[in-house]
């Protein structure tokens, strides 16, 4: 299972790198460095979505419960930060449009998808921990009630012994 976990982490990291590149495209940074062709949005979107999907599948298969909650919160937080960065970039591009950029439509999708995925990634472990705490509280309450009932039964037996002892005298 460590191999699947490593693959999942690598795929999720590659997906996040593709998303960061999608964030940088409207600013012209990847094209100015000469890393990407003039219009790589479709390929980056496909890479981002597939890496996230397969990364999450492999992660769900390979991770243990403690790791699953911790890494899900971490991944969800990174996705929320990515969604916030996309929203900030949308705002800045509309407030101060650089030359040559007419639309940052892919940023809207990145904002929506990352925010939803991040919210789910943060919420699911939190709700699972809440359910576990509630179940533990119920187990403790049940054990206390059982102990109380046992104490009442013991008290009844003791009272019967006292009564039978007094009757014999």
Question: Describe it for me?
Answer:
- The chain has 169 residues and is mainly α.
- 86% of the residues lie in helices and 0% in strands.
- Helix 1 (2-24) packs antiparallel against helix 3 (41-62).
- The longest helix is centred in the last third of the chain and has 64 residues, at 105-168.
- It is elongated.
- The termini are far apart.
Q: Briefly note the structural class of the backbone.
A: mainly alpha
Strand content: under 5%
Radius of gyration: 29 Å
| Head-to-tail CA distance between termini | 74 Å
Instruction: Please state the overall shape, judged from the principal axes of the Cα atoms.
Output: elongated
The overall pLDDT, averaged over residues, is 81
The number of E-state strands comes to 0
Approximately how much helix is present in the residues? over 70%
Largest sheet: none
* N to C succession of SSEs: HHHHH
Question: Helix count?
Answer: 5
Low-confidence stretches: none
């Amino acid at each position: 299972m460590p191999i699947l976990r490593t693959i999942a982490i690598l795929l999720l990291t590659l997906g996040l790198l593709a998303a960061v590149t999608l964030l940088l495209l409207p600013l012209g940074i990847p094209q100015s460095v000469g890393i990407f062709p003039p219009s790589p949005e479709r390929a980056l979107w496909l890479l981002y979505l597939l890496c996230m999907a397969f990364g999450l599948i492999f992660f769900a298969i390979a991770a243990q419960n403690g790791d699953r909650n911790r890494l899900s919160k971490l991944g969800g937080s990174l996705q929320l930060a990515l969604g916030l960065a996309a929203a900030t970039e949308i705002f800045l591009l509309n407030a101060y449009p650089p030359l040559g950029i007419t639309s940052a439509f892919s940023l809207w999708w990145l904002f929506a998808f990352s925010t939803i995925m991040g919210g789910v990634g943060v919420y699911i472990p939190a709700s699972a921990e809440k359910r576990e705490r509630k179940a533990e509280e119920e187990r403790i309450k049940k054990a206390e009630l059982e102990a109380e009932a046992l104490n009442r039964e013991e008290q009844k037996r003791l009272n019967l012994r006292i009564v039978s002892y007094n009757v014999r005298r």
